[in-house]
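User: Structure please.
Assistant: Input sequence and predicted structure:
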Amino acid sequence: MTERKPIASAPKDGSQVTVSWTDGDGVTSESLARWEDGGWWTYIDSDTKKRIEPSSWRPASDDDA
């Protein structure tokens, strides 16, 4: 697995990356996300897109898709 990097160094060109983030209940999740409209967005289910505040990232791999 690729080492995680600080979110400040993540690409903001619309490419998809794997991020680690913590929800309001304190549960840490890992998901695919991309920078759009001034923030990080991920799908939390097949129909629901959510803005998140990730803490770290790594390149998306074929295993993530």
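Residues 22 and 28 are 4 Å apart (CA to CA).
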